[in-house]
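Hey, sorry to bother you again with one of my protein questions. A protein chain has come my way and I'm curious about its shape. I'm sending you its amino acid sequence along with the backbone structure tokens. I owe you a coffee for this, so here goes:
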Amino acid sequence: MLSNKTIFLAQPRGFCAGVERAILIVEEALRIYGAPIYVRHEIIHNAYVVKDFESRGVIFINELDHVPQGAILIFSAHGVSQAVRIEANNRQFKVFDATCPLVAKVHTEVVRLKERGYQIIMIGHRGHPEVEGTMGQVDSSIYLIEDVQDVAKLHFEENALIAYVTQTTLSVDETLEITKALVERFPNIHAPKRQDICYATQNRQDAVKAMVPQVDLVVVVGSPNSSNSKRLQELAQSMHVPAYLVDDPSQLQGEWFDGVQNIGVTAGASAPEALTAQIVEAISIFSSGTISPLQGIEETVNFSLPKELLRAA
């Protein structure tokens, strides 16, 4: 068992403004209407948060046919397609939309580009709820690409108007190689504004980059289905430091810390600070180390709740 170990805490880490807003929407709906509250998909990708809400009467569903007519329904932070919105309206659900405002901004841009005659390419992960929601904003097809190799498979008519958008939880660094390839192949391609990329994803990755040179191992607090949490793990590993993704203290393994002096801890944008604190406490059991919060960007972004929910409150 090591002594004098230091546990460095990345800054920023954990909840972003979009996640905080989504959770508060569910909290307020529970307070105002009581259980059951239905949520399409997990409100955010974190097992700790989902289990807590389930214990309080929140029911997470993938298809709307599992929701009784007239029920309270919340769209998750990842957003939904227009088809889902139409179905929810037809079935007379009372809907509160927890779509992250940054995701909603991309939805609006996709519709606007289509109306202007653009062919749209989306950079993202196939099957991710945000990608499905964004691609479902328009009737005609959007071309999904996941890596540089997919760029070569794209074919458009000469002089076609072409634009691309990205999954918001991909950082500028992650998409750089793909966007370079797109610009090389389609020099006149319309690019999104930099601010359309999730600020929180980039900030958390930058914090890991700053922390990794000081540590021998990184623990990322987050669930396996959290895209941004997995990217933090992969980023640390790409910098040649062992990294583990955990969403429960019981998943920590003592042998990870054998011969390790300095440990870095960060958390994905969907991981609550309460869970991070539990995992830091569990790590401390393996040695009598000190906890050292690192300096970093202080995020001040705040998103308001839906007007319909504020009126109900």
Notes: The chain has eleven helices and twelve strands. The mean pLDDT is 93.
